[in-house]
Amino acid sequence: MFIGWRNYLTVLVEFILYFITTAVAERCYDCDSRNHKGCAEIFSGSALIRNCAKSQLDPEQDRCMKMQGNNIVMRSCVKQGSPAASMDDGRCIKDHNDITTCVCSGYLCNEAAPPFSASHSVVSVVLLGPFFRWWFIIP
Asked: What is the per-residue pLDDT across 33-44, written as a single tens digit (0 to 9) for each?
């Protein structure tokens, strides 16, 4: 009876640790060109951000928005000479037709990790090793 209890406990702990180590999580960030702490790598490496700065605007619109999956990038634009057009360092970025880009902002999500990576296997073996040893050594 006691041995069966240990086996069930070991299997339960194995499944719990397996799901913890192979969990797929997606983290999303609010980013803009002035403040993107915590998401600098995602923000600077995003093709959506780079393409947003280059996109042509409809003359009657002052915004553009691009979506790709859960990622949303918006570009707010103001006319040249507006105080809102200057960046933190005082520079203004001029666009075609004398439109100045004020800020390029985004709600960006990292890609989900693959569920079966090598690191998950190593963590599972290290964490479950004592339980397997306990399981097989005790009769």
From this structure: 444 444 444 445
